[in-house]
Amino acid sequence: MSAAGIPLPPRAARVFRSTVHGLPFGGRMRHLPRIRSGEPLVLVPDPPGAGMETVWVHLLAGDVVGHLPNEIGSWLGPWMRRGGQTRVRLLRVGDESVPSWKRLLVEVTCG
C-alpha cells in the first residue's frame, strides 16, 4: 500500500528507476542542457479513455521532456488517476553519445 492509502497494483514497485522515452519529438531535446541530476520532475498521466496509458514527464516549469515506458504507464497512469501520488527526481542526464531513450534516468517514488 502507498503512503496515500491507495494500494499499488501487484506488479508495481513503490520505488523504481526508469528511462524517459520520446525525447527526440516535439523539440524536447532543447531542454536537456538546462536540467541537472537531482532536479525534481513531475509525472502527468493521460486522461481516462486516451487510448494508451502514457505517463508524461514534465519539468517543474511545465515543459514536457518525454514519457515513461508503456510497461510502467499501464499500471502507473490508472493508479495516479485514482489519487496515487509520485515524487520524481532526475538521476542522470546523458550526452549525445547516449541513445535518446537512455539519455534521462529518473527515480520514481509512489506514495
Give a verbal description of the structure:
The chain is mainly beta and 111 residues long. The chain has one domain (15-105): Alpha-Beta Plaits. It contains 1 helix and 6 strands; from the N terminus they run ββββαββ. It has one helix at 70-81, and strands at residues 15-19, 40-45, 55-58, 64-67, 86-93, 104-110. The protein has a 6-stranded antiparallel sheet. It is globular. The termini are close together. The relative contact order is 0.30. The model has no long low-confidence stretch (mean pLDDT 88).
In spatial order, strands of the major sheet run 1-6-5-2-3-4
**Approximate strand percentage:** 25-35%
Main β sheet profile: 6 strands, antiparallel
CATH topology: Alpha-Beta Plaits
Structural domain count: 1
- Total beta strand runs: 6
Rg calc:
14 Å
Order of SSEs: EEEEHEE
Helix and strand layout, with pairings?
Elements: E1 15-19, E2 40-45, E3 55-58, E4 64-67, H1 70-81, E5 86-93, E6 104-110
Antiparallel strand pairs: 1-6, 2-3, 2-5, 3-4, 5-6
